[in-house]
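COMPLEX REQUEST
Ligand: S-adenosylmethionine
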Amino acid sequence: MPPRRTKLSDRSSRHDRAYTKAKHEGFAARAIYKLQEIDQRFKLLKSGARVIDLGCWPGSWMQYTAGKVGPEGRVLGIDLREVTIALPDFCEAIVGDVTEWSPPAGETFDVVLSDMAPHTTGDRHSDQWRSEELCRRAIEIARQALRPGGHLVVKVFQGGAFPELLRELRGAFQEGKAYHAENTRASSTEQYLIGRGLKASASLRAPAPAT
Ligand SMILES: C[S@@+](CC[C@H](N)C(=O)[O-])C[C@H]1O[C@@H](n2cnc3c(N)ncnc32)[C@H](O)[C@@H]1O
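STATUS: Structure written out below.
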């Protein structure tokens, strides 16, 4: 008799395939395929775009983004951990905590990405709460950094504050929706919030410093 296959095992083997594929294709993490899936669906990353990547370590989203924006663009990543992979010179990865960091004043960005995840404790509620706090901070940074019309992608582990975060996103962007990437573990509560077209009225961009 042939072995029985469940939906769950299909999904986890797809996850393992993504890991092997990422290694084979020279990407730093399988997370690359989530961004690729989101970008193909929502068409966010264009040649020449200026992009911030929050929670960028080990660097697969920076690698993908660099390939999309090219040398006319800029990719600025930040993470608690140092990115050690080689990246093109229009990419910059800094070490820092987004709760204490603000985007460079006087620079304007087209897209903010956040794949940030808290160090998980195993306590689902506390992990969700900390993820929601990081998501809230990513929305704030997007409002500080983006030009009006710019876009945001932000990961969040769905918990009690999720409806409020979605409302906040929709208040700041022309279009806001939640998206569950196919390349996600079946057991995960992970969602991506996609905000397209920052409203001018939601911009918190600081004026350029006087020279
Ligand atoms: C899932 S990983 C990101 C993977 C990355 N997108 C890639 O493709 O290589 C989540 C990252 O969020 C970072 N992170 C969590 N809290 C942070 C904070 N307060 N400031 C900066 N980075 C943070 C973690 O250090 C971790 O490296």
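REMARKS: Helices lie at 7-25, 32-42, 60-69, 124-145, 162-172. The pocket of S-adenosylmethionine is lined by residues 28-29, 31-32, 55-61, 78-81, 97-99, 115-118, 134 (CB under 6 Å).
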